[in-house]
């Protein structure tokens, strides 16, 4: 039977397919009746599912990260496709095809890792090189990086998304660096590599996509800074060559300031040239990725505009996702 991928669903389709639960909530309508709001996903995207007249008892029969066989009908609501769920049942992970639920196949992940190592391998500064090696030689960290998303909902929120985000930023950084001779290219590359690695501890991604307890309390900027300090201490212990304080501080500053503004979660605003570049290209990559996914998930063919996105604070012109043609 042909799989009903989320990206292929159209309004008024009858649905009988297995999807993974990215999120679930119990809500009440205006009449005070409970219903389930589900976020269902496969490798092609995410879609909301509404199960009316269902409360806490049904909510507790499955968990985020579980696979559900969903029966229902699709409909458009405010320009967004959703599934009105008539029934569902949990499906054991052994009964599903893993490749249907990840955007990045294992072979592609290994190619991305190889490119990551090649780009970081151009770092010649001895101190920065030892920092890079402390991370890339950590097999446990690399295994997490193979699987980690960069976000929960809108920012490369899929298996391998963090690796792709880091590599995209390394490519952008390499393209920018020649235009600014005052920029320390190697410092920028290493800062780009390190900036989001705290998400390996901030996020939980072995089942459902959620935040770990330490991630809720500290956040990945702080967690990444703490981890870098720990690795710098280990480097000094193993090699007898301490990381010079100015290098450590500049790398930690890039991690702490990469959200760019205090009200965006950075405890410090960027105060080095490399930190300024990192904050801007990080914001660029996240926003372009989020906008692209919003455009691709919008199913309202009667308009060239997406529905309003509360997260992004705007609508998007859908043809802008296609390359311009003509003279």
From TrEMBL:
SUPFAM superfamilies: HD-domain/PDEase-like. Residues 158-296 form the HD/PDEase domain. One of its GO terms (molecular function) is nucleic acid binding. Its EC number is 3.1.-.-. One of its GO terms (biological process) is rRNA 3'-end processing. Keywords: Hydrolase. This is 3'-5' exoribonuclease YhaM. It comes from Aureliella helgolandensis.
